[in-house]
Amino acid sequence: MAEVALRQIVKRFGDVEAVRSIDLDIPNNEFVVLVGPSGCGKTTTLRMIAGLEEVTSGEIRIGGEVVNDLPPKDRDIAMVFQNYALYPHMSVFENMAFGLKLRKFNKAEIRQRVEHAARILDITELLDRRPKALSGGQRQRVAMGRAIVRNPKVFLFDEPLSNLDAKLRVQMRTEIKRVHQKVKTTTVYVTHDQVEAMTLADRVVVMNQGRIEQIGTPQELYHHPKTRFVAGFIGSPAMNFIPCRLEESGGRMRVRISDAIVLPVPASRSARYRSAAGRELILGLRPEHVTEPRHNGRGEDSDFTVTLDVVEPMGMETMVFFTVNGTEICGRVAPETAAGPGATMRLVANMEHMHLIDPNTNLVL
Amino acid sequence: MTTAALAVPATRRLGMRSSLRRNRRWALILSYVFLILFAIFFLMPPYYMIVTAFKSDAEMARMATNPWIIADGVTLDQFRILFTQTDFLIYFKNTAIVTACVVVITMVISVLAAFALGRMRFWGSGILATGIFLTYLVPDTLLFIPMFQIVKWLGLLNSYWSMVLVYPTLTVPFCTWIMIGYFQSIPKELDEAALIDGAGHLQMLFKIFIPVALPGIIAATIFAFTVSWAAFVYPMAFLYSSDQQVLTVGTVTTLIRGDVYKWGMLMAGALVAAAPPLVIYAFLMDYYIAGLTAGATKG
Fold this sequence. Notes:
Chain A is built from nine helices and 20 strands. Chain A is α+β, with helices and mostly antiparallel strands. Chain B has two domains: 2-41; 86-296, Orthogonal Bundle (MetI-like fold).
């Protein structure tokens, strides 16, 4: 059990700067997910914590101790790899016991720990099998078991679910969360899947181009993104980014996205946006905030009519796509209200959830 | 109309299927014809060797008999004379000692070298690996002249220990090359997992890499064994007394005197000499084929 602290961590591979001076504090027992697109530096960061990559500059502390120059085995961490990395010539029991044997635990202790971990992961009946006789999900459980038996200070997960099919991925996601609740340990988890990040994390760290874009709880990132990147990365389908002009007249602020469509800015936001009045900005609106009129007293002003290009029924809801001034916008409507493609539909924008982004800085105002 | 429209493609489909089946049958027939031809071609020499080894000298001398069958009955005379009246057993013992030493030396050097070159990234490891393989391309018919000087300088001329020294120059480069390939094919997460589990480099080699790369190690062992069991040029050049001689050169020099070929004993000797490689192949092939890396990672 320990906290992890990264101080101005930089990693260079030749001329390429993979990680650009990041700072991160992970308190004891927290489940932190590093998320971002390929090449954003999340895996490199994890591997530096593990000791599998050297740190170019900066400081990594685990449990208060600087570990920059410690080899992986002395950092008291355990790691679960994307492709499981089970030892193919050993049984499940031997795979899980390997780390303990190397650390000279006695046989009774090893057996007790392996059996305990096997019970947690429900793999007791697999202990005598070789990895090749296991399914993908079972192999992933064994890989987690190998981490659990060591009772390390920190668990590191490197995209552990990427190789599983969609259904199993959802099951294992729940499993990982359940295990973390049972075996309270500081956990750093890397994924490119924002749904995984949102569902698993106590806090999510969104990375892009070697930098941390934002750190926050899943709810914070979803509702209060600080940058255009975070706003677009978190949430599925992605947030709509619509070029607009912020107008002010008679003390009321509005967002004009076309000659015909002008949307009111809620009074509660007026003060925040006043300084940007008259500027060309980008309106960020999630698909679930572009819906059919729901008579919830939001006012007529935010209603507008569009011609639908594409309609995608999802069962519980229907995604509708339309174009305003060359920008494709996605809305999420109740299936029974959706018009067909080519037809006009009246929609409403829930401006309580709007975001305004400065196109020059890409920061959310 | 509808029935006719449906019927035509159905027939066509059936026709296509039967022509597929016909093609496959022809492919199979051709495969078997060539397999049988190859089998006959490759099995004829061993068959001739076996038949001749169990014949009497008298039967061989009679030109009228069919050389492909044993007409006068099976005899073990050739083996008895070979074992009791020639130095064959000394050659056999020398060859066994040389081969065992060469296999051990080769495997120790090439496994360690391949582990270092294949898994531990260091400056120049790629060039070094290619360089090692290039040395294998220099034929022993060229190498034996400078090698002769070295062996003489070491005072090992006419000693089978010189073979223990020179054979690894043939076996180590190739075995290292094979092992580099095997070690490189092992996913890097496996050694990272071992590092995190607390293994040092040697523990990683012995507990993870060697067991996982066993098929490669066996392939390399078979190669080293075959090369040192069957080498001809070096013993021909460096060994000349009977007590130091090895099977390949010893059998030939003892049993061919001028233009007199002792065919029966030559074939009996060849048969006995071929037995250990056959046994080794048969024993190790099972391990060789077992795909041990399956299940290490997703696959």
